[in-house]
């Protein structure tokens, strides 16, 4: 990565349903590093956000997740200190955007291990915003896993841009990934990509209470520019990376709104899915289905096996109290069955089975698209099906994304539009669009966005560009 590379693309916004802010003049890596107030070497890592192409919602079920790095990204600069303090600045991190200056003992105990109190005290007190908590959590989890030694002499961290104007896109994982990438190199350690991705997932799970998987972090670390990265979530490993044909492209569109209850709905769907997983496990064990390679991941079950053996035996819906009385908790440490809630078990579980199959079929379509022009049409249809499933099977659609997707699809193949779907966790946010690389398709997309904005009163905009992951571009020493 060159010093001139831009690392900030958007203005901060803390309102969940605010219109997207337009890009401001970007900071360079050198400008992010310049905020550090010590005299030692400075190390800068740049981590991009992720556009969920397919599979993202089903990552905790072991699905194949396909992601594309975004042009919007985060820059984190790290520098050793000698005064035993942890100093964090940028994005903002504290009240009124002030830098945070706290004892390193907040993070590290006397035995050199990560301090459990760091998570509860700092996150609960509101002293740090979510960007600062990501940094604190990343350092603590990195020490816990042995990815970097305990920085007992202190550390300075500067954050450049947190993608706050983007509704979705994995900004928390990008901050954590860039922090660990820069810190490990600053501490003379060799970054271990998938171990860092696992640590970033725990930052989301344990520090921000977001029950997500590792796909965002893997893409933020190892995604290549303009290439789709395959993350195999059941094994926590990567598949290949592949590029679209030269005459096609994927773009993200921010619809301009994320529902205020998006996290709650996402958690509800995850709980219902794990309820379905437990029931499937009971059926497999009771009937001794040894022909199924079952290891607890729904991704192991084919669509045919699901329809034949399980679908009609899963309850369409069940009240949490009844489920708890009959089966107990689901075994998922990140969710709890609420007695008063009603869970649509069958449809939520069904989405995860079908979504994994769609991801695999999407890869197959793109692999033959260079010799078969109809393959991109088939790939677009898979995206359309995924969008429908988000809304109808999972209840994670929104008026805004449904309207935007409908208006985009209306232009159809004659305008070079193949397919579109809600991205990430749903409930608004980003829409992924597969289209022909041509003036006519871009004109059609712009027309759809203008139409959407006029109807909804929301200002949507296209997210352009693709930035390589932090460990692909490399950590830069300044």
Structure description:
This protein is α+β, with helices and mostly antiparallel strands. Among the domains are: 262-348, no CATH class; 355-463, Alpha-Beta Plaits (2-Layer Sandwich). The protein has helices spanning 29-34, 116-125, 130-144, 171-186, 193-207, 215-222, 262-287, 303-310, 320-327, 345-368, 374-392, 399-411, 439-456, 470-473; strands spanning 43-54, 64-80, 85-89, 100-103, 154-160, 228-232, 237-242, 248-258, 318-319, 342-343, 417-422, 428-436, 461-463, 476-477. The strands form three sheets. Strands 1, 2, 3, 4, 5, 6, 7 and 14 form an eight-stranded mixed β-sheet that branches. The protein has a four-stranded antiparallel β-sheet with strand order 11-12-8-13. Strand 11 (417-422) and strand 12 form a beta hairpin. Helix 2 runs antiparallel to helix 3 (130-144). The protein is globular, with a radius of gyration of 22 Å. The N and C termini lie close together (11 Å). Residues 1-25 have low confidence and may be disordered.
Can you lay out the helices and strands and say which pair or pack?
Blueprint: H1 29-34, E1 43-54, E2 64-80, E3 85-89, E4 100-103, H2 116-125, H3 130-144, E5 154-160, H4 171-186, H5 193-207, H6 215-222, E6 228-232, E7 237-242, E8 248-258, H7 262-287, H8 303-310, E9 318-319, H9 320-327, E10 342-343, H10 345-368, H11 374-392, H12 399-411, E11 417-422, E12 428-436, H13 439-456, E13 461-463, H14 470-473, E14 476-477
Parallel strand pairs: 3-5
Antiparallel strand pairs: 1-2, 1-14, 2-5, 2-6, 3-4, 6-7, 8-12, 8-13, 9-10, 11-12
Helix pairs in contact: 2-3, 3-4, 3-5, 4-5, 4-6, 5-6, 7-10, 10-11, 12-13
């Amino acid at each position: 990565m060159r010093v001139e590379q831009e690392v900030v693309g958007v203005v901060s916004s803390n309102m969940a349903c605010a219109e997207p802010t337009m890009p401001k003049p970007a900071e360079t890596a050198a400008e992010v590093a310049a905020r550090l107030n010590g005299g030692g070497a400075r190390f800068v890592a740049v981590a991009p956000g992720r556009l969920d192409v397919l599979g993202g919602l089903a990552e905790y079920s072991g699905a194949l997740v396909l992601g594309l790095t975004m042009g919007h990204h985060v820059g984190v600069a790290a520098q050793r200190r000698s005064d035993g303090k942890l100093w964090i600045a940028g994005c903002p991190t504290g009240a009124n955007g002030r830098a945070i200056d706290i004892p390193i003992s907040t993070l590290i105990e006397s035995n050199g291990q990560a301090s459990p109190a760091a998570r509860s005290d700092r996150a609960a007190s509101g002293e740090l915003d979510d960007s600062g908590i990501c940094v604190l959590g990343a350092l603590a989890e990195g020490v816990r896993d042995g990815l970097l030694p305990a920085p007992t002499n202190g550390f300075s961290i500067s954050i450049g841009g947190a993608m706050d104007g983007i509704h979705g896109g994995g900004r928390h994982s990008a901050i954590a990934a860039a922090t660990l990438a820069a810190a490990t190199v600053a501490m003379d350690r060799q970054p271990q990509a998938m171990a860092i991705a696992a640590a970033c997932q725990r930052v989301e799970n344990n520090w921000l209470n977001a029950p997500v998987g590792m796909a965002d972090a893997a893409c933020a670390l190892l995604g290549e520019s303009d290439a789709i990265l395959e993350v195999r979530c059941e094994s926590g490993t990567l598949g290949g990376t592949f590029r679209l044909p030269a005459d096609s492209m994927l773009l993200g569109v921010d619809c301009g709104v994320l529902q205020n209850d998006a996290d709650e709905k996402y958690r509800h769907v995850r709980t219902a899915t794990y309820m379905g997983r437990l029931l499937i496990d009971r059926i497999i064990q009771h009937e001794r289905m040894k022909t199924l390679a079952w290891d607890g991941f729904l991704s192991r079950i084919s669509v045919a096996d699901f329809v034949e053996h399980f679908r009609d035996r899963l309850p369409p819906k069940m009240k949490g109290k009844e489920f708890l009385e009959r089966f107990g908790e689901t075994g998922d440490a990140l969710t709890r069955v609420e007695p008063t809630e009603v869970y649509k078990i069958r449809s939520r579980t069904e989405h995860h089975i079908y979504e994994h199959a769609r991801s695999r079929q999407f890869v197959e379509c793109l692999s033959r698209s260079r010799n078969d022009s109809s393959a991109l049409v088939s790939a677009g249809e898979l995206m359309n099906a995924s969008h429908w499933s988000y809304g109808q099977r999972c209840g994670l659609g929104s008026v805004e994304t449904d309207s935007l997707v409908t208006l985009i699809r209306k232009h159809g193949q004659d305008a070079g539009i193949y397919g579109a779907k809600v991205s990430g966790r749903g409930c608004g946010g980003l829409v992924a669009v597969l289209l022909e690389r041509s003036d006519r398709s871009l004109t059609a997309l712009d027309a759809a966005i203008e139409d959407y904005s006029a109807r909804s009163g929301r200002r949507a905009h296209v997210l352009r560009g693709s930035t390589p992951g932090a460990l692909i571009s490399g950590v830069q020493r300044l």
